[in-house]
Structure formats: C-alpha cells, structure tokens
Amino acid sequence: MNYHMTPDQFREEGKKLIDWIADYYEQVENYPVMSQVKPGDISRQLPDSAPESGEDFSTMMKDIDQIIMPGITHWQSPNFFAYFQSNNSFPSILGDLLSSGLGVQGMLWATSPACTELETKVMDWLVDLMGLPAHFKSTASGGGVIQDTASSAVLAALLAARERKTKFSCNKTGDNSGLTAYISTQTHSSVEKGIKVIGLGTDRLRHIPVDELFALRPELLEQQIQRDLTAGFKPFFVCATIGTTSSNAIDPIKTIGEICRKYDIWLHVDAAMSGTAAILPNFRSHFEGLELADSYAFNPHKWMFTNFDCDCFWVADKAVLIKTLSILPEYLKNEATEKGAVIDYRDWHVQLGRRFRSLKLWFVLRHYGANGLRHHIAKHIDMAQQFAHWVKTSDEFELLNEPPFNLVCFRHKSGNEFNKRLMDSLNNEGKIYLSHAVLNKTLWLRMSIGQTQTELKHVQEAWRLIQESANKSECTPE
Ligand code: PLP
Predict the structure, then answer these.
(1) In this structure, are strands 266-270 and 234-241 parallel, antiparallel, or unpaired?
(2) Composition of the chain by helix, strand, coil, percent to 5
(3) How many A from CA of 46 to the centre of ligand 1?
C-alpha cells in the first residue's frame, strides 16, 4: 500500500494550484481587505479530529475556497494600508516553492553547500546595493545571515552583545548581573521580548524619552548610561531604530553610535520596515552612522517583494556572533567545518535547522534587478508624499509629521473617539484597511503604502473613502 501523492498527481494538482494563486492575485482587490469573520467561525466548520482516511486534493481545495478564504485578511490587496506592508511577488513565491521542493536543511555548509554559499553571496550583494558599511561583508570582518524575523535578529544581537561585554563568560556561568540595555520609548516590543528571553529582567531595560519627532534623545541616553555606571551597572546594549513602528521616527544613529563607542556598548540598528529605502541613494542620509553599528537588520519580507519570512541581519564582527552561538556536538562534526573553510549558519542564530530562504531573495533581486526595485520603492514613497500633501491641504485632517518614507500618520481633527470610529467603519466596510498608533495619548491613523499592486488610483480612492466616511453620520464629531 502506498499512500504518497505520485509525481503525476503532484504535477496535475501543482499546476492547478499555481493557476489558483495567479487567479487570486488577479481578483484580490475584490475581497473585503480585512476578514469579516467572528471568532470561532472558521473553527466551527472544521472537524474535531483528523481524518482516518486520506482525502482528494480537490476536496481540500474546496475547503480552502469555502472555509479558509473567508478567514483571510488580504495582505496582498492593493488596498491594504495597515500595520506595515508585507509585499509579495511571483518570483518570491516561486523561490519559496522551489525551496520547499528541494526540501533542503541548510544547518551546515556540508548539508547543502549551495544553500550557504548563495545566502552569503546575496547578503554581500545587498551590502553594495543598499550602501551599507563595507565591513558588513563576509569578505571583511562581518557577514550577513537570513533570519526568520527581526525579533530573532535582535535576540542574536543581544546574546552576542552580552558575551562581548562579559568577556565570553556569561554563556558559561550564567552570570549576567548588572547588565543594562537601552531603547527608546518607541522601540519595537521585540527588544523587550528578547530581554525576557535572555533572562536579563525587564527592570534592566531602560526606556529613553524621545523628542517631538519621536526619535530617541541621545543626551538623555548618555545621562542614563552615566547614572547606571555610577550605580555600578554594566551598560551593554543599545537598540536604535530607523523607522519606528508607530510613526516611522528615525533615531540619530551617528550620535548614538558615538556614545556606544565611548562606553563600549553594542549598537544594534533595527530598520525592519524602512530599511528597504536604503536602496535609493537619495534616502541614505537617514542611515548615516550605520558604520558605527555592531549589528543591523531589515526585513525584505515587509517592503522588498519577498514573502514572509526573510529578515536580513548583518554583524560588523562575525567572530563574536559565532563564538557566542557556536555548538559542535559529535553528530554535526564534518571535515569542511573542522578545516574552518566554510560558514556554518547554524552558529549565526538560535535554531539549528534552516530553510533555503536565499532562493526567494535571489529570485527577487534577479527578476526586478536593482533598477526595478528602485523604481517601485521610489513610487511607493512618492504615493505616500502625495497622500500626505492631500492631508496637509485639507481642512478636516492633519498630519503627525512629514513622512520620511512610505508611512503616513494622520488624523481627523475631531478627537480620538472620532478617529477610532472612522477607522473601524472603514475597516469593517472592507474596501481599505488602516491601523492606528497612540502617541502622547493621541490616536493617529497609519497609512502604510507599499503593497506590490498598489497604484496611485488605490491611494486616491482610499483618500476619497476616508473623507466620505468622515462625513457619514456614524462618524459625527463628539
Ligand atoms: N522592528 C520594527 C521597527 C518593526 O516595525 C517590526 C514589526 O512591525 C519588528 C521589529 C518585528 O518584526 P518581525 O515580525 O520580523 O519580528
């Protein structure tokens, strides 16, 4: 008895599935962007136990259409403007499919040399393409690795920073007493989570106040470091952000970097969402000071046409990272590793096993070329600037700030409750999807423009809908 799907069945169903996905992208605009189901609606339609006998693929696809699709929020809709974009592309989907097809486990160079060597090459390409510090290259002191998420990247950075500060003793003794870390009040929650994971205790994480543009105030960072040193603490880690989640604020990386050098503190720079903008030379001034960073991460799975998951993480000194995370049990020993001639990426992050993620990034880079990427990213930023202009010149709405990249934070002038109702009514109607941020107790609507299929007409229609909805009775001012 053979229960496996045969290659012929796979060919047949696979081709149908590719057609299904292509159809989906052609029609994605017609779905309500935010899923309209209620909690439990999907679960209720699914059986309580797994099937005893195997089923046809076509039966499964019927359930996809009938049960699963109503529970999908359409991140790939050109009318998705919430959170951060997560833009996908066909070359990326094909790269991911190929990665699944090859089924490679790239934990060591030896377990699939191409998986490691392509990743190293692609990460080195990106250093040049995005004008990043040359020492991030694998041919220099540093190197890059693809992590699943920015959260995993910051966790690896925290661990390396801790080892460097404790002269590589903490991994052995577990003694992290007195270490302190620094973020701004606007830093992404993944750093706090990382602090929990490494067992430091969130009391040792200092939240530094921000200025009127929500960027970390470096003079207050230095004062806090000095207070901690006087009190006998050991400052070891700072995370600065280029493009904070709530408002796209940009921390002064150069000044923060100089402070970190002065006090021998690891600087991690998180540009998860906005890092893609560095592909445009005229936006690189926002990245000034990156040469002082010990580690840096951005997510092609947010804004570079690469499907989740794909976070690019570089370190300035790979030896520290590898020494921090390296483990070599007998069952992983092999000649290539022992000769030291290769990279074993399992030493560059927390997990051992790893997917062949560089394939999708390689396909994206080769399909679009640098020109294609620059064209589309510049277009997203232009559309955001256009939207910001409409807001600025309207009587009813106001802007939080001049958007540096592609995220526009704005609000109706009628107060928090009104804006919340406006957002909920728009999202429930399903034609567009927005999210919000609260800054200094004020609720702002966030319009993140950068989906693969978003064109100016979608942004224009969104602005029309927002104004129309604001004029409707359920949104009358308090
Ligand atoms: N950092 C910033 C600035 C973000 O905006 C986000 C996600 O929104 C993250 C980190 C976390 O990203 P990930 O889901 O890749 O961990």
Answers:
(1) parallel
(2) 50, 15, 35
(3) 32
Q: Ligand 1 center to residue 189 CA distance, Å? A: 8
Please give the C-alpha separations between residue 195 and each of 159, 200, 313, 468, in angstroms, as whole numbers: 10, 6, 18, 45
Closest of 376, 390, 383, 436 to residue 406, by C-alpha: 383
Q: What are the beta bridge partners of residue 250? A: 242
Nearest CA owner, ligand 1 atom 12: 150
Tell me the residue length of the chain.
Answer: 478
Q: What's the pLDDT score for residue 345?
A: 95
Average pLDDT score over the chain: 95
Tell whether the model's pLDDT for residue 477 goes beyond 70.
no
Alpha carbons 77 and 186: distance in angstroms, whole number = 28
For residue 301, give the ligand 1 atom closest to its CA.
15
What structural domains does the chain harbor? Answer: 28-88+370-478 (3.90.1150.170), 104-355 (3.40.640.10)
What is the CA(276)–ligand 1 centre distance, in A? Answer: 13
Q: What is the pLDDT of residue 335?
A: 77
SS (H, E, C) 72-135: CCCCCCCCECCCCCCCCCHHHHHHHHHHHHHCCCCCCHHHCHHHHHHHHHHHHHHHHHCCCCHH
Please state the pTM of the whole predicted model.
Answer: 0.95
Q: Which amino acid is at 131?
A: G
Give yes or no for residue 475 having a pLDDT over 70: no
Confidence of residue 334 (pLDDT cuts 50, 70, 90): confident
CB 359 within 8 A of CB 116: no
Cβ proximity of 88 and 80 under 8 Å: no
Alpha helices in 393-443 (DSSP H): 416-429
Measure 151 CA to ligand 1 centroid, in angstroms: 7
The DSSP secondary-structure symbol of 342 reads S
Q: Are 107 and 354 spatial neighbours (Cβ–Cβ below 8 Å)?
A: yes
Residues 274/245, Cβ–Cβ less than 8 Å = no
Tokens of 406: 């592609």
Rounded to the nearest angstrom, the gap between the alpha carbon of residue 259 and the centroid of all alpha carbons in its chain is 27
Pick from 36, 130, 182: nearest CA to 377: 130
Residue whose pair of structure tokens reads 């996908």 in the numeric block: 88
pLDDT at 22: 98
Tell me the C-alpha distance between 301 and 365, whole Å. Answer: 13
- Residue ranges of the alpha helices (H) in 263-411? 300-303, 318-325, 335-339, 358-392
> In angstroms, how far is CA 204 from the centroid of its own chain?
25
